[in-house]
Structures are given as structure tokens and as C-alpha cells.
């Protein structure tokens, strides 16, 4: 995977703004292999972001032999939802995963995830 003219600082700022001004616990932008590019959790997080991104990448691409990978997977636990979104840009031949951890009772969470995706696409 090649990343050309990727403004990481702008993406980090935009993702932090959305996470800080909403109930989202945090978000991770990673490569299709699960390597973290940007995360909004910080150093004192209770979440192991490396494990979350690696497991998300394996879930999205696990059954990818001859099939189109899913655009989105939502995992629901007792206290939170994990939204894994596959972002593919055909014109630049780049693929990323956007992983967001959201409280279980948060309404309209897809709007926030869509905003995060827009920030990423605008800065690629």
C-alpha cells in the first residue's frame, strides 16, 4: 500500500475534534493490514489499540478470497459497539479501516462515523 500526500496532522486534528465533541470513546485509522496510522485514544487508554486494529483487519479480510470485503461490520458488546468501516478509494487505489468504539446507548452514531470518514477522504 502506498500513501501519497496524506495529511496525517489534519486527519488527527479532525478526528480528535469529533471524538472530543461527541460520546465516541475513540477512533482508529489503520491500513488494511491493521497497522495504525492515527488513533484518538491517547496513552492512558483502557483499550489495546494494536490488538483492536489487527483483529479488525483480519475480520474484514478473512473471507476475502473471491469475494468483495464488507463495507462495515458492527460488533455489539454489553457496554459498547465497535464499528469497523472499510474505506476504499478507487482513484488512488488505497484502502483503510476506520474503527470507532461507541457507547451502546449512543444514538445516531452513523452520522459521527460518516463525519470521520469524510475527514479521512478529504485529506487523502
Q: What is this entry, summarized?
A:
The chain is of the alpha+beta class.
Topology:
Layout: H1 8-20, E1 26-31, E2 36-39, H2 49-61, E3 72-76, E4 80-89, E5 94-103, H3 109-122
Antiparallel strand pairs: 1-2, 1-5, 3-4, 4-5
Helix pairs in contact: 1-3
Task: Explain what the structure shows.
The chain is α+β, with helices and mostly antiparallel strands. The chain has 3 helices and 5 strands. The chain has helices at about 10-20, 50-60, 110-120; strands at about 25-30, 35-40, 70-75, 80-90, 95-105. Helix 1 (about 10-20) packs antiparallel against helix 3 (about 110-120). The chain is globular and about 35 Å long.
What are the key terms here?
124 residues; alpha+beta; Beta-Lactamase; 3 helices; 5 strands; globular
Residue share in helices? 25-40%
Radius of gyration: 14 Å
Strand order of the largest sheet: 2-1-5-4-3
Report the CATH topology name: Beta-Lactamase
Strand runs, count: 5
- Average pLDDT score: 86
What structural class results from the helix and strand content? alpha+beta
CATH class label: Alpha Beta
Question: How many helix segments?
Answer: 3
**Low-pLDDT residue spans:** none
N-C termini distance? 13 Å
What is the element string, with H for helices and E for strands? Answer: HEEHEEEH
Give the CA-based shape.
globular
Amino acid at each position: 500500500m502506498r500513501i501519497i500526500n496524506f495529511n496525517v496532522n489534519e486527519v488527527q486534528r479532525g478526528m480528535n475534534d469529533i471524538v472530543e465533541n461527541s460520546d465516541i470513546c475513540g477512533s482508529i485509522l489503520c491500513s488494511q493490514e491493521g497497522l495504525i496510522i492515527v488513533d484518538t485514544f491517547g496513552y492512558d487508554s483502557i483499550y489495546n489499540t494494536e490488538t483492536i486494529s489487527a483483529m479488525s483487519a483480519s475480520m474484514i479480510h478473512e473471507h476475502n478470497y473471491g469475494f468483495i470485503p464488507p463495507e462495515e461490520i458492527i460488533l455489539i458488546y454489553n457496554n459498547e459497539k465497535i464499528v469497523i468501516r472499510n474505506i476504499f478509494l478507487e482513484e488512488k487505489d488505497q484502502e483503510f479501516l476506520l474503527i470507532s468504539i461507541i457507547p451502546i446507548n449512543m444514538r445516531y452514531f452513523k452520522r459521527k462515523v460518516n463525519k470521520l470518514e469524510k475527514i479521512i477522504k478529504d485529506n487523502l
